[in-house]
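Predict fold of 2-dehydro-3-deoxy-phosphogluconate aldolase; 216 aa.
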Amino acid sequence: MALDKTLTALEVMSDAPVIPVIVVHDVADAVPMARALVAGGIRMLEVTLRTPQALACIEAIAREVPDAVVGAGTVRTAADARAAADAGARFAVSPGFTEKMAQATRDAGLPLLPGVATSSEVMMAREAGFDHLKFFPAMQAGGIPMLKAWQGPFFDVKFCPTGGVSPANAAEFLALSNVVCVGGSWLVPADAVANKDWAQITRLARETQALVKTDY
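Predicted 3D structure, encoded as tokens:
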């Protein structure tokens, strides 16, 4: 898929079956990790703002890995959104939804996957113009049965379930008509990063290609 400079949420979600949820503690790991994921066919990279180094990691990937499309995860405030955009992020993912944070991502030109866990939150996000949402925390909030229940009332909404999604259940999530992709941390295991085992990360990324999603 060719990507314009300005992305849409659907482009972010439909580029691959899995968006890796990345926590980086050392800026030196950011670029080789990103290159390893891209080598395995994963280029939408969600670097979560959970460490002090996260923004520097986003900046390094944006500057040095042109084939990657780096985004910021765990965006919770308007300040997070502005900082992510300034660091070079091209999309944002949030654990929840607020109007102020959503407007900040719009102002920054970042497509947003806002997090929802209840029907009321889906409705609030939909009223604000968002129809591609992150279902988080997926397993704790009802998992596959919840997504199936939402297929009727929210027929016009697509989801990226994240939280408890793993290689063991990813295919079952992806089989749902209202799921475009899943988010998962298993592509970047902490031990692989600690051991600089970039080949393992590439292998894990390649394995996700078997999780084919054809109906968006």
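Strands lie at 18-22, 44-48, 69-73, 92-93, 112-113, 115-116, 132-135, 158-161, 182-184.
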